[in-house]
């Protein structure tokens, strides 16, 4: 997965807010197959390999349900290692009466479902990059029906879904934003991403290293949508992992040049996109 390891900048971690931590832990463990790496009374760091956390849960004080028509999380996306993994989790979800949607995006094959609080999760596999179709600087993507018949031919006989594969990574994140012009400037001129697909005037897909997207942004909750309350279910933050300290310093400099604030908190660098989505800048 060359797009999700150094020297490429990638999304290493996502933290979401939930109403009931124990209920969410049961879902992410029993349904999706994560393990707990660390847990407190209000947080849980989840892992697939027993060593690193790609997803965390947080139950804020005085938490309120997910708010509609706001900026924030559209979905976070878990990238599985193989097609047989995707086929096996389809069987697992069906056997456990878990509702899910699906799509063929040309570059990938994806499932969509929600956690108990309505946080949307994409679970997907990539097609080989040699199969992606580039038109100049943009990669072709679509929302086509998923071919389940072909996918399920990849089910491994006798193998049932028990755990999320150890090599699962955080593939990308897709965000609701309030507008696109300043958002594009922030992610391109500030964080150094490339726009790799424009979905009309409603969405942008951005990436490092010619991936189909590490970040998607859209205005589907309305142009001018407000940020949710801090204690609302939804996105708390996501983490960008840079190759080395100089790369992070360069991003910090560029962010400041376009007027974005960068805060340093206990050796952590924090910034916010124009819609208030919190981003941690890590090395």
Architecture overview:
The chain has 283 residues and is an alpha+beta fold. The chain has one domain (2-282): 2,3-Dihydroxybiphenyl 1,2-Dioxygenase, domain 1 (Roll). Helix content is 18%, strand content 35%. It has 5 helices and 18 strands. The protein has helices at residues 21-31, 83-95, 148-152, 181-190, 245-257, and strands at 10-17, 35-39, 43-47, 53-58, 72-79, 101-104, 108-114, 120-126, 134-135, 138-139, 169-176, 194-199, 203-207, 215-218, 234-241, 262-265, 268-272, 278-282. The strands form 3 sheets. The protein has an 8-stranded mixed sheet with strand order 2-3-4-1-15-18-17-16, with helices on one face. The longest helix has 13 residues, at 83-95. The model has no long low-confidence stretch (mean pLDDT 97). GO terms for molecular function: lactoylglutathione lyase activity; metal ion binding.
Short description:
This is VOC family protein. With 283 residues, this protein is α+β, with helices and mostly antiparallel strands. The chain has helices at residues 21-31, 83-95, 148-152, 181-190, 245-257; strands at 10-17, 35-39, 43-47, 53-58, 72-79, 101-104, 108-114, 120-126, 134-135, 138-139, 169-176, 194-199, 203-207, 215-218, 234-241, 262-265, 268-272, 278-282.
Topology:
Elements: E1 10-17, H1 21-31, E2 35-39, E3 43-47, E4 53-58, E5 72-79, H2 83-95, E6 101-104, E7 108-114, E8 120-126, E9 134-135, E10 138-139, H3 148-152, E11 169-176, H4 181-190, E12 194-199, E13 203-207, E14 215-218, E15 234-241, H5 245-257, E16 262-265, E17 268-272, E18 278-282
Parallel strand pairs: 1-4, 5-8, 11-14, 15-18
Antiparallel strand pairs: 1-15, 2-3, 3-4, 5-11, 6-7, 7-8, 9-10, 12-13, 13-14, 16-17, 17-18
């Amino acid at each position: 997965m060359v797009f999700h390891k150094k020297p490429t900048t990638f999304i290493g971690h996502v933290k979401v807010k939930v109403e009931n931590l124990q209920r969410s832990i049961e879902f992410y463990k029993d349904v999706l197959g994560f393990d707990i790496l660390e847990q407190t009374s209000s947080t849980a760091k989840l892992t697939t390999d027993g060593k690193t956390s790609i997803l965390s849960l947080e139950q804020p004080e005085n938490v309120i349900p997910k708010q509609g028509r706001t900026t924030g999380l559209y979905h976070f996306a878990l990238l599985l290692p193989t097609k047989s993994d995707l086929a096996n989790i389809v069987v697992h979800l069906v056997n456990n009466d878990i509702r899910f949607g699906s799509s063929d995006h040309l570059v990938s094959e994806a499932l969509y479902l929600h956690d108990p609080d309505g946080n949307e999760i994409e679970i997907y596999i990539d097609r080989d990059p040699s199969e992606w179709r580039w038109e100049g600087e943009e990669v072709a993507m679509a929302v086509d029906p998923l071919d389940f018949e072909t996918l399920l031919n990849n089910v491994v006989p006798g193998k049932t879904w028990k755990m999320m594969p150890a090599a699962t990574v955080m593939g990308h994140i897709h965000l609701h934003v309030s507008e696109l012009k300043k958002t594009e400037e922030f992610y391109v001129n500030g964080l150094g991403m490339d726009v790799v697909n424009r979905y009309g005037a409603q969405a942008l897909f951005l990436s490092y290293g010619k991936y189909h997207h590490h970040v998607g942004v859209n205005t589907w909750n309305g142009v001018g949508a407000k940020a949710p309350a801090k204690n609302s279910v939804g996105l708390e933050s996501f983490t960008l992992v840079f190759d080395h300290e100089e790369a992070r310093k360069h991003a910090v400099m560029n962010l400041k040049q376009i007027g974005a604030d960068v805060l340093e908190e206990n050796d952590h660098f924090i910034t916010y996109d124009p819609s208030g989505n919190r981003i941690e800048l890590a090395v």
